Amino acid sequence: MLELTMATVSAADAGATAGMLMADAPSEPGAVLRVGRDGSVCRLATPDDWLFVSRVHLEFLCGPDGGWQVRWLHGSQPDPSSVVRLVVGEYAQSVAYGGTVPLPRGGSGEIIIQDRTGPRSVNVGFYHEV
What rounded mean pLDDT belongs to the chain? Predict the structure, then answer.
């Protein structure tokens, strides 16, 4: 099972944990969890006016072996207005626009979508239960 928690953070409420959203999916091949502004498609939806997040920004997909990966989907613009990083413990890695990164099996961490133009971020914590 993959469990996700999401918090939207702006300069005004940095450090606050209120408004955290949660979603999960079984580790079955083809299972998908999406994060973005479109609540009709995404299990975890950000505020509509946070335009640095695409309609569908991140897609967590379970592969045939039960392992999970995260993909930063291309939005409607050729250049993104955000930066996406994967953080696992002391390890941090940038995720390329349109790129895919495997999540550690049985591990936990965080995917951070950072606005390039201001002090706002979407923090998506993950826990892969095996």
Answer: 92
Give the neighbor-by-neighbor strand order of the sheet with 21-25. Answer: 21-25, 2-10, 120-128, 108-115, 82-88, 91-95
Contact (Cβ atoms closer than 8 angstroms) between residue 69 and residue 61: yes
Averaged pLDDT for residues 50-66:
96
* pLDDT classification of 55: cutoffs 50, 70, 90: very high
SS3 content of the chain, % helix, strand, coil (to 5): 0, 50, 50
CB 121, CB 12: distance < 8 Å: no
Among the listed residues 112, 121, 91, the one whose alpha carbon sits nearest the alpha carbon of residue 16: 121
Cα–Cα distance, 92 to 96 (Å, whole number): 13
Q: How far is CA 100 from the centre of its chain?
A: 12
Q: Is the pLDDT of residue 103 over 70?
A: yes
Q: Count of residues for the chain?
A: 130
- Residue 82 corresponds to which tokens in the numbers above? 């955000």
